[in-house]
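Hey, I'm writing a tutorial for new members on how sequence and structure tokens pair up, and I'd like a real worked example in the thread rather than a made-up one. If someone can provide the structure for the chain below, I'll link this post from the tutorial.
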Amino acid sequence: MSKIAIIAKMRRDGRVVDVLPDGTQRPFPDTPMRPMAESQDEAAAWRDPDARPFTPEELARTKRIPRARTLRRALGLTQEEFAARYRIRSAPCAIGSRAAPSPTSRRAPISP
């Protein structure tokens, strides 16, 4: 396994950049780092036990769940406004909108 860490960041415009150790950023190349044929790419995915693709049967059983943060931002609402509009506790709304919820956020008081 390689000991090199690659830090990537997605800009607001949707472009993905490589963050270098000195903090500067450079865009990722448009071509893949290791070009593979589609069949090689799929075979590699099936060999990876942690990120195996869904079978058609598994995909059919999955339930699509919209991300609360994406929905809330698309509506232009704050967490409190979103919670009030859809009559949900503000704590679950906050948990769904943050990258890493803290255990104390689940106990946040509900504002009337």
